[in-house]
Amino acid sequence: MTESDYKHLLTKIKLTKDKYKIEVIAYCLLPNHYHLMLYQASDKPISDWLRDLFNGYVQKFNRKYDRSGTIFERTAKPKLITSDKYLIDGIHYIHSNPFKHGMVDNPDDWKFSSLSEYLNEKNVLISTRILENYFYQNYTYQTSFQEYMESRKFKEELD
Length: 159
Description:
With about 160 residues, this protein is mainly α. It folds into two domains: about 5-65; about 85-155, no CATH class. Helix content is about 45%, strand content about 10%. A two-stranded antiparallel ribbon has the order 1-2. It is globular and about 50 Å long. It starts with a helix and ends in an 8-residue tail after the last helix.
């Protein structure tokens, strides 16, 4: 995937999420897989949004590279967030993924992740819900993420 492919997918996410009342909590797009943590704010299934999002994306991708078929090996693996700890660990896990896979020396060097939005406390694609409800002046996301990285929990799989 090229930078323009990543940017195209992020644009599609931004343009379509509101129609399905989806809030993006965290994301990371990698060459062979992606992570999306989403909040479903309506009765519309997230799977409908994912189908529409990726059908259009895959068609354009296949035309661009003169290929056919699917891009991703597997379908989405949904996981229900059942606790605040699991929520925060999941966001950290997503943001540490490029580092975990040796793609960057520092997680915030990966451009196609929501980490920069969390560290800079700016909303481009993500919902501000997590920053507003879980982090504050004396305990920022940056501090929380640094603690996570220092604990080396990123080496573990998320249950």
